[in-house]
Design a protein that fits this description.
By secondary structure, this protein is mainly beta. 2% of the residues lie in helices and 43% in strands. The protein has a five-stranded mixed β-sheet, with no helix packed on it.
Length: 327
């Protein structure tokens, strides 16, 4: 069925905000998380959480891992890590090579894939990855679904992308696709949420014409996006009620910043002069504050554990450390 375009959103009424001061623990007693860390931009490596074993990530270009959300992606089964190996000529990138490594440290042979300038949209499923090619040119832009294990390729470039070039050949809008490539945000001076297949505008917002703070949930079903004035945080699902939050509701003079979805897509961690967790099922927000004079490093790495139970963040006391919040 065709969804109606929603042009305005009303702030969420009667939002409950609870302040919850948590102790940052070096090693919680109930911390039993299997899997790997991804550590470092320069000379990055994977590290087993349980054993501390390090696994190098092959990089042949700058030896620096891109940190933008189109620079790497983890498969839904958390077995494969896809990343961009960037080559720099002078001050500009002249090659962006796709590489994929297994959690065991084994690299996937990519000889059949010769594309050398691309961005990662995300894993569509455990066997297919969506890529954006020739992103710097609207007229030559391509969206493809690649099976890196077989080399099978399918182009799914939507025709409506060309419309932006026809309107203004010198304006290239920023487009951010959901991991399942069903919806896309177009930052076209304002912003539009579009159905990728049909080009139908599902939602229109204001004040986004540069790289905004945004995050898609892992399955692509929910979008969190902050307007350029950092006043409103929109939570836009596929089916549930849309939510618009105002920073003034959070008793802070700091406006919205970065956003991070939990793996199951039901909780959203966001920055508004402090850390808050918004629970979509409870329609409530929890402010996190820290004991022991711990200071959250707001420009450091922040992520959720795979079991949705822990928030991992960079924190500092007298020296930098990684802390866990049991949530």
């Amino acid at each position: 069925h065709t969804k109606e375009m929603i042009s305005t959103l009303q702030p969420t009424p009667t939002l409950a905000i609870e302040e919850n001061c948590m102790k940052v623990e070096d090693q919680p007693m109930d911390l039993t998380i299997p899997g790997l860390w991804l550590i470092g931009r320069a000379n990055p490596h994977l590290q087993e959480i349980a054993t501390g074993k390090k696994i190098g990530i092959p990089l042949k270009g700058t030896n620096v891992l891109p940190i933008d959300f189109e620079g790497y992606a983890v498969s839904p089964n958390r077995e494969w890590f896809a990343y961009i190996d960037q080559y720099i000529d002078g001050s500009a990138a002249n090659k962006r090579i796709l590489r994929i490594i297994h959690s065991s440290g084994e690299s996937l042979p990519m000889d059949a894939w010769q594309e050398n300038f691309q961005w990662i949209i995300g894993w569509v499923d455990d066997e297919h990855i969506a890529l954006e090619l020739n992103k710097t040119s609207v007229t030559h832009q391509k969206i493809v679904i690649l099976n890196p294990f077989t080399g099978d390729l399918k182009e799914i470039t939507p025709e409506w992308i060309r419309d932006y070039h026809d309107l203004d050949p010198y304006w290239i809008p920023q487009i951010y696709y959901s991991p399942d490539v069903t919806r896309a945000i177009v930052a076209n001076r304002n912003f539009e949420l579009k159905d990728v297949q049909t080009g139908t505008t599902l939602f229109q917002g204001e004040h986004i014409d540069t790289l905004p703070y945004l995050a898609w949930s892992a399955d692509g079903s929910r979008l969190a996006i902050v307007d350029n004035y950092n006043q409103y945080l929109y939570i836009i699902p596929k089916s549930e009620e849309l939510i618009k939050l105002n920073y003034e509701d959070f008793d802070t003079i700091s406006r919205f910043g970065k956003v991070w979805w939990s793996p199951d897509g039901w909780k959203l961690l966001f920055d508004s002069g402090g850390l808050y967790v918004f629970d979509l099922q409870l329609n409530s927000a929890t402010k996190l504050c820290f004991e022991d004079k711990i200071m959250w490093t707001r420009y450091g790495g922040t992520l959720w554990s795979p079991n949705n139970q822990f928030i991992v963040l960079n924190a500092s006391q007298y020296d930098d450390a990684v802390g866990w919040l049991d949530f």
